[in-house]
Amino acid sequence: MTLEQKAAQLVQIPYAQIGREKSEEWARRGVGSFLHVFGEDAKHLQKIAIESGAKIPLLFGIDAVHGHCLNRKATIFPTQLSMACAFDPELIKRVAQAAAKEISADGLHQTFSPVLCLGRDIRWGRVDETFGEDPYLAGILGAAMVEGYQGEDNAADTSVIACAKHYIGYGEATGARDSYDTSITYRKIKDTFLPPFEKAVKAGCASVMTAYGSIDGTPCTADKKLLKEILKEQLGFDGFVVTDWQNVSHLIGEQCVAENAKEASRLALESGNDMMMNAPEFYVAIIDLVRSGEADEKLLDEAVERILTVKMRFGLFDNPFRQADEKYLGCEEHLELNKEIARESTVLLKNDGILPLTGKNKILVVGPSADDIRCNYGDWTYFSHPLPDYDTQPVRPYVTLLEGVQELAKKHDCSVQYVKGCEINGEIAGGIKQAVKAAKKADVIVFACGDNILLAAEGCDRADVRLPKPQRELFTALCNTGKSIVTALICTKPLCIPEIDEHSAAVLTNFNSGMFGGRALAEAIFGEINPSGKLPISFPYHVGQQPCYYNQLPGWHCRSYVDMPETSLYSFGHGLSYTSFAYSDILFDEKTLTLKVSVKNTGKREGAETVQVYFRDLASSVMTPVKRLIAFRKVQLKAGDSQELTFTFTRDDFSFVNANEERVTEPGEFELMVGGSSADSDLIKKKFTIGMAPKSWTDQ
Ligand code: GLC
């Protein structure tokens, strides 16, 4: 390959932004990749590429982050935060397999998914894209997604390249400001933020994306220790690193660590980035740098080798036009899977006994989220990226909450009236008055509230994460009618809703739960399903209470604000059921590190419980969290049935990263906790000891 061909191979061009003609020029030049180009346009560019220069096939990438949602014909699954509520890696793997077929049906090869950032500050606009706040859960679900996307046979037409992102600590930025700096240390990175990426790399993830942000003043894209030493050398990552959108030029204009395109390009390449997303300037700059001896061509060779190796691994050289059958797009099987995961992701947060609804009820459905399917879709769909068109009309099939309630009401001998009442973030003239009037004739109110992607998405961070004022006012008016209220939270992420919890008889959510999430909520309200979802993220009472994730360090002297409790409103792992479960016979064998626990369905109807296991290192050389999730398992039990579960751990499961940035398990006292949520009130605790590590033969 010539120097020019090598330089072009490292560039990823945004088709939607530069258009057909300029894209054809890049294809002739031997560019490595495009993003956001579909179908016939992609085929056209591929034909040019394999007939030009080094004849290297193009790689096409896309943001298919909860299904292939930029395509109107595709299946729009729940967002990651919603799917995480299912606590079911097998189910998520199946969703990723389905999404991979639909992505490939458009002739695409790479999806910029899964997101492995942790959602630990709900002010951030992209919490919905994460699997929540816990490193272990994010890692298990992220690895399952990688396996689902990439398949057993990476070269199969139904497999696509996964891309673990955003490396690293993106959601931890100071003030939850998107793409901003975070003051975490490398020790903290390795202990808390790296584990999900380790699991993804172990699962064979073929690409990783560098985050927009910076760690203590060093942009991730310019951080050689992060990209080369930790990711490529220590984790053994053998795929390619792609930057996020214009990260190279951001080094100049936004992060101010480079004066010009040449400096930025050299910095990005030397730091370990292999593919530069939307960085056309990189092409000329790197050629000049190599020609003038200011950059080592060997670095280009290393990056080209990584990219070509992945293209070969995924069959692009054997068949540049590899494509799954178009029949997969939005197919019946995927729609049924979508319904299944929306049901599994439905979380019952509060219930004073009003649910499931029984008997003849006059139901008033009210609120701005009840009948707008866009509220169920979250970000990265055909009306939000890459060319936002929020007013576009959503395409069928889908079922909103209102439609789900109307459909099931007939079966349950109930009547339904609907009043919108207000907009997501705006008033409707006379809306509250109309809602109150209707409420007076109703037996029960279903209040559908939340946010939308104009309030929470990439580039939409919020300082005040309460329900928007018009919705709060509508809710207060409904409370004053004295009628029982069932609140359905249709939101991108946790909101601060203490008043909703206090005055609702029941509260349930499945976040942005895709095409059929509204129906799943309706099925839970009528008891057609017994909700079994668990929260992957904490709900704070107030934004000032953050960070309120469950795995906090000890040491807070007053343990609570004077004006706010220490605990969150709803804890990580919380989720109620229409039945009840009891835990017993908890035995832990310190020698084999094996835990046995029995769980029984003590209620009157079948249900599923996600048994959660946490641990604490009671004394460690650096401070470690008061509890950390170490295992979970979802069990389906008929009324009266019980099941004994066995969990077998290794010493490494009880490890942390010490002050020398080494992952260690220190001997001493530990505590194991088992139950149905991370709340202390839900956990049974047992102390145990881990002894010195057995001496390996090399030590003797
Ligand atoms: C965006 C996002 C990233 C996405 C990329 C390509 O700005 O940060 O998650 O994959 O650009 O669209």
Give a written overview of the molecule.
With 700 residues, the chain is an alpha/beta fold. The chain is built from 20 helices and 28 strands. The strands form eight sheets. It has a six-stranded mixed beta sheet, with helices on both faces. It has a five-stranded parallel beta sheet with strand order 4-3-2-1-11. Helix 5 packs antiparallel against helix 14 (332-344), helix 10 (247-253) crosses helix 11 (261-271) and helix 17 packs parallel to helix 18 (469-479). It is globular. The mean pLDDT is 97. Alpha-D-glucopyranose (GLC) binds next to loops.
List the helices and strands and how they pair.
Elements: H1 3-9, E1 11-14, H2 15-29, E2 33-35, H3 39-50, E3 59-62, H4 80-84, H5 89-104, E4 110-111, H6 135-150, E5 163-167, E6 181-182, H7 186-193, H8 195-202, E7 207-210, E8 214-215, E9 218-219, H9 224-234, E10 240-243, H10 247-253, H11 261-271, E11 276-277, H12 281-291, H13 297-313, H14 332-344, E12 347-351, E13 362-366, H15 374-377, H16 401-411, E14 415-419, E15 422-423, E16 426-427, H17 431-439, E17 444-449, H18 469-479, E18 484-489, H19 498-503, E19 506-509, H20 517-525, E20 581-589, E21 594-601, E22 607-617, E23 628-637, E24 642-648, E25 656-657, E26 663-664, E27 668-675, E28 683-690
Parallel strand pairs: 1-2, 1-11, 2-3, 3-4, 5-7, 6-8, 7-10, 13-14, 13-17, 17-18, 18-19
Antiparallel strand pairs: 8-9, 12-19, 15-16, 20-21, 21-24, 22-23, 22-27, 25-26, 27-28
Helix pairs in contact: 1-12, 1-13, 2-3, 5-6, 5-14, 6-8, 10-11, 11-12, 16-20, 17-18
